Amino acid sequence: MPARRFHCLTLGCRINQYETQALREAWAAHGLAETDDPARAGVILVNSCAVTAKAVAGLRAALRRLARQNPGARLVLTGCAARDHGPELARSFPGLVAVPQARKAELLAGPPPAGALPAGPGAPPGPAPRSFPPFAVRGAARARAVVMVQDGCSQRCAYCIVPLTRGGPVSREPGAVAAEVQALFAAGWREAVLSGINLRQYGLGQGRDFWDLLAEVDAALAPRWAGRARLRLSSLDPSQLGPKALDTLGAARLVCPHLHLSLQSLAPAVLRRMGRGHYGPEGVARAVADLGAVWPLFGLGADILTGFPGETDEEFRQTLAACAMLPLSYAHVFPYSPRPGTEAAGMPGQVPGPEKTARATALRAVAQAAGRAFARRAAALPEVSVILEYGDPERGVSEHFTPCRLTRPAPGAAPRDLVRARPAGARGAGLAVTPAPDSTTQSARPDGGEPQDDPC
Fold it and tell me: Is the pLDDT of residue 446 over 90?
């Protein structure tokens, strides 16, 4: 029956991906069946993002499409857009149920009743949870599994709506993190991404930090999984890259040589106006250079915001020049988007849209050139390890987070497998790779098993 079928649409960050997976598993345990076809669903879960105006516009477009495909389905909207945009969207889409982020965990009990609308315009997100929300997963919808280790944020960057939608920081116990990663590896996933809203605030007030967590998880899992599975780190605050970070990364046996930094800007005055004056361009450059002693070659990504209120031409040039000096392999560049309720939305000196776009284009060009240069360096490596993606058996991602295209299929390999391969040349910011003749494939079969011999 359609009423017992559900469809999920996830927009936004890795944490939303994780929470959708937890809800998917919980609803299946309650007897509902998931369908890939929204037209066949009785309930459609939309896990939303509100970080930018573009994200909210994309949400509206997605809801219109879903309403056309299945006008009889009940739409359940949750995530960061549900709090402030839920009432407005409920007027546009009759029957839509809005469950704000602070109450998302209540959905673990099943879809809410029709007509429920727990929050109105401007309603507070509710008290920050005193413990980690009860999300947990046994699998993932993608070839690389996300594991949530931290939620919430109290940093209150001037541009960011997330503290208003997710509340203050809470952290997951290291033992629970290690157990979940172990279960995912045993079930056949070969990469787990340790993710949080603000990993800098992991363990805040508890006498530990993210590097303590990583050391404990790596120590627990490396004896069994080193060389057979791997950990990747989600976005980090640049100020986290101190001596303790270098020591932890240097000792870790499972961590991919790849970091993604939440830079946002590298102009000191802009960082101060953003509420991010705790790091600067010199410290970032020094920390990245020091990483070379840990990893001779490592992927480096960054989030960068252009056109923040008051950003002058000179301040933008500072960011552009500093980024050009970093060994980036890619960057996510976003023109600043005012978010209701944030400090920056009311700041003077709002940069015109065309100027924000032009600056973003210039930064992307720098990042793309750096990505191509990185791919050429990676092409000189004797070998890389590639996680095969779903949907295309000849596509995957290396340990450096470099997109890879196999020149031929890896015999016996399947999505989620970890395949040893030899670079055959750079292709833009990616690599062409050939499965190594003497390689072994770390099988994604849920046997917890030993490496499978590659017959080639």
Answer: no
pLDDT tens digit sequence for 173-204? 999 999 999 999 999 999 999 999 999 999 99
**Is the Cβ–Cβ distance between 336 and 365 less than 8 Å?**
no
- pTM for this model (two decimals): 0.92
| pLDDT-wise least confident of 112-126, 213-227, 390-404, 436-450 | 112-126
Determine which of 121-130, 243-252, 353-362 has the lowest per-residue pLDDT on average: 121-130
CATH 2.40.50, the chain: domain bounds: 384-453
What percentage of the chain has pLDDT greater than the value 90? 83
The topology under which CATH files domain 145-378 is pyruvate-formate lyase- activating enzyme (3.80.30)
Amino acid at 53: A
Q: What pLDDT sits at residue 130? A: 54
Domain 384-453 has CATH 1.10.3470: no
pLDDT for 65: 97
CB atoms within 10 A of CB 300: 23
| Class of the domain covering 2-109 | alpha beta
Mean pLDDT rounded to a whole number for the chain: 92
Q: Give the 3-state DSSP-derived string for the chain, with helices as H, strands as E and coil as C.
A: CHHHEEEEEECCCHHHHHHHHHHHHHHHHCCCEECCCHHHCCEEEEEECCCCHHHHHHHHHHHHHHHHHCCCCEEEEEECCHHHHHHHHHHHCCCCEEEEHHHHHHHHHCCCCCCCCCCCCCCCCCCCCCCCCCCCCCCCCCCCEEEEEEECCCCCCCCCCHHHHHCCCEECCHHHHHHHHHHHHHCCCCEEEEEECCHHHCCCCCCCCHHHHHHHHHHHHHHHHCCCCEEEECCECHHHCCHHHHHHHHHCCCECCEEEEEEECCCHHHHHHHCCCCCCHHHHHHHHHHHCCCCCCCEEEEEEEECCCCCCHHHHHHHHHHHHHCCCCCCEEEECCCCCCCHHHHCCCCCCHHHHHHHHHHHHHHHHHHHHHHHHHHCCCCCEEEEECCCCCCEEEECCCCEEEECCCCCCCCCCCEEEEEEEEEECCEEEEEECCCCEEECCCCCCCCCEECCC
